[in-house]
Write a structure and sequence with these properties.
With 179 residues, the chain is of the alpha/beta class. It has helices spanning 9-18, 24-36, 54-59, 73-82, 119-129, 153-163, 173-177; strands at 44-48, 65-70, 88-92, 105-111, 130-141, 166-172. Residues 46-138 form the Methyltransferase type domain.
Length: 179
Amino acid sequence: MAVRLFEDKEHANLYWKYRISPSEELIEKVLQFHRSNKNSANDLAVDVGCGSGQGTLLLAPHFTRVVGTDISPAQLEMGRKHVNVSNISYRESPAEELPFEDGSVDLVTTMSAFHWFDSSRFLQEAHRVLKPHGCLAILNYTMNMELSYGDCSETLNHICKEVGIITVAFLTFQCLSAV
């Protein structure tokens, strides 16, 4: 189960003001990778551990529908208050129990939140909800992130080490389904 921090409204307000969001350049890299698969779609993106929605907002221009999920009602309330975009909605949900049907999501992102999750359970859940040819993007500010997921572990960790301080791991459904 994900760690439950950042629960109160005062902290959520500070999070909205000071949380570092990914750059538009980094989001564009994620989108380029996602679009590089000719069978990809832009119907539904899910931003897991979205906090107050700064990263969720960056996805909105590129998808028909974007859903930010978080375990903190206060964080989600802050997102609803500050992000008034018609194709964005928010759902309270742990990262390891996403409220989406199997194979229904085109892009799953987690931006500076992966380190709070039960990583193995989250990766299984991302695998479950992603469409064939879907994409998972893990954006995290760390140099020591290790990923473990079946036969993909070595490849995932190579990508993480190659990118450096801002770790960006992209997994396609093909990699996950090989497990």
